[in-house]
Amino acid sequence: MIARTHTVQPNALDGTIVTVEADFMLVKQGPGIFSIVGLAGKSVDEASDRVLTALRNSKLLTHKEGAVRAIISLAPAALKKDGSLFDLAIAIAYFMAREGIQKDVSNTVFIGELSLDGTLREVRGVLPAVVAAKKAGFTEIIVPKENAAEAALVDGITVYAAQSLLQVAQHIKGTALFSPVPHTEIDDTYAGAVTMLEDVRGQETAKRGLIIAAAGKHNAILVGPPGTGKTMLARTLPGILPPLSLDEALEVMAIHSYAGTLAGGITSVPPFRSPHHSASHVALVGGGSIPRPGEVTLAHRGVLFMDEFPEFDRRTIDSLRQPLEDRIVTIARAQSSVQFPANIMMIAAMNPSRGGDQGDNYAEQMLETYKNKVSGPILDRIDLWLGVPHISHEDLAKINTQSGETERARDLIRAARARQKERLQKHGLTANAEMTARVIDDVIELSDSVRALLVKSAERLKLSPRSYHRLVKTSRTIADLEGSDDIKDIHVLEALQYRVQ
């Protein structure tokens, strides 16, 4: 008898449905066989031992005379199968084939790793797998209990949580049915925000620059001597960025589920990733024999904070060109290529020189010290250069905390983003930094005086066409923060203050 079940090979955002076929027969002579075919990776190929032991320890196999010949086929055969989440689907297919169970499970997806005693273990990639199952028209999915809240984020498909293989088998036979898992609501508060703007004493210019960056999703760099608050400033961003929409939050959590970094973080707070400067090229942009997302993709729709920016390997820094421009990461292999989303806002921090000099001309010091480490094309993709100078202890003692500073910033940024979303809706964009030159021409009208100021400034500062358009986008964000329908000279002049001289 042949039995069929279904599971999913997840990827960063959804996945591919995999059909599991099991054929069982008794062999009078010769050894038994349990073979898995269909381009199975090492972890899938090892499932045979886990499945047989779990079935036996769950007392689900009736005694049959003779050796067993079982073939498990995973289709489509050309798709590389990787991960331990195939265990449950393989076990159920084999169980139904061996026991001759005639049960229609064509609308059910099975996901879970088996321990030797038949307990179901938590797996990664459940959320994108549920998304893929829903897209393919399946009506129910069975997952490990630890993955239930994650799976129940998706509406339109019934989720069942199981603790063991025995429970799933009883559910299929109808002897003990599951109750559906209630829909999981996403937390839309700022619970993940730890550092507030009020925690940073002084540095008003840098705070204003970060508010502009957050309002338009602009890339920014914080330059100043050690101990002046650059890292603390960057860590205020999760507390002032607008919460993700439902679709955006599901997209972000699907990526983290696939990467195994979700860890129960069901929230609408944009991700904040801060890789160490010793991180490899693969760790930052992704890669591997089976391509996995890197920090750039894990920061999708959030912030990639790169502290000690010039201390990253030059190849690693240059690999940011594509995600900063195209908002995707392409990983090419001999047989295929994979694209991961990378719609990020990059915030970098650095000392003006390796010695941490405390002079005022940070840009000049930085360019002289790090010109062989940070390439021009990367610097060209940074919209705001924010100085974070040393503050004397005497002045620091005089600064009082301004209550409500973070709340006011949140309100400003949310209002600015709402204006941008309305303006850019027809282009499928949500923030000014995402605009291309064509979109700028379509949605932004410049007065003669503003156009003349922009041209004159670009010529004097020797801006590239890319930097010119970034200047326009930053000016538009400043205008949005002020609630202005048009870009005015004063908005351009403020944007120019944040350009490296």
TrEMBL record:
PROSITE patterns: MCM_2. Belongs to the Mg-chelatase subunits D/I family. ComM subfamily. SMART domains: AAA (SM00382). It comes from the Bacteria. Pfam families: ChlI (PF13541), Mg_chelatase (PF01078), Mg_chelatase_C (PF13335). GO terms for molecular function: ATP binding; DNA binding. This is MCM C-terminal AAA(+) ATPase domain-containing protein. Residues 294-384 form the MCM C-terminal AAA(+) ATPase domain. Keywords: ATP-binding, Nucleotide-binding.
